[in-house]
TrEMBL record:
Pfam families: FxsA (PF04186)
Record keyword Membrane present: yes
Entry annotated with the keyword Oxidoreductase: no
Full protein name: UPF0716 protein FxsA
């Protein structure tokens, strides 16, 4: 896992350098530096504004003893978006803006949710819908003649079928 992260970070840094060189050749070095500084300043402003809102919402939920839910995820996305905006580079600025702006934050949240859910083991994934049908068998009635609340007698058998919407994948290496 660590090797993949290092490769991904290295490729991201290389892409940032390539984009900076392309932008500098297009608009000039001075304008590129100015644009980089402007996006950094914009990142600080957006981080301060959105971060304050997110922390206020988290405080409000804690005061009312409600689960943090999506507010905690939004605070994390705002922190990551602010970091990406503050670091130099135009690719990070685009991704940072997607994380910082409320109208586009749901896109990033949905993409991350699907990515994390796909990497979870099958047993830990979302709810499974179960379809069942009542069948009266030789026990006579839904609970059978020998089944008691005390648990003595013949065992209670419930037949059912587990239905999944997506196919089960085995992601083991």
């Amino acid at each position: 896992m660590g090797h993949r992260v290092r490769v991904l970070v290295g490729l991201w840094a290389l892409a940032e350098v390539v984009v900076l060189v392309l932008v500098a050749s297009w608009i000039g070095v001075g304008w590129t530096v100015l644009a980089t500084l402007a996006t950094t300043a914009l990142g600080w402003v957006l981080l301060a504004r959105q971060g304050t809102r997110a922390l206020a919402e988290l405080r409000e939920r804690a005061r009312e003893r409600r689960a943090p839910g999506r507010a905690l995820g939004d605070a994390g996305l705002i922190a990551v978006g602010g970091l990406l905006m503050v670091l130099p580079g135009f690719l990070g600025d685009v991704v940072g803006l997607l994380c910082l702006l409320p109208p586009t934050r749901f896109l990033v949240r949905g993409l991350l949710g699907r990515t994390v859910a796909a990497r979870l083991p099958v047993a830990l994934r979302g709810p499974v819908r179960v379809r069942s049908a009542r069948a009266e068998g030789p026990l006579g009635g839904p609970f059978g003649s020998g089944a008691h609340a005390s648990g003595f007698g013949r065992p209670l058998v419930i037949e059912g079928e587990v239905v999944r919407d997506e196919p089960v994948r085995d992601d083991r290496p």
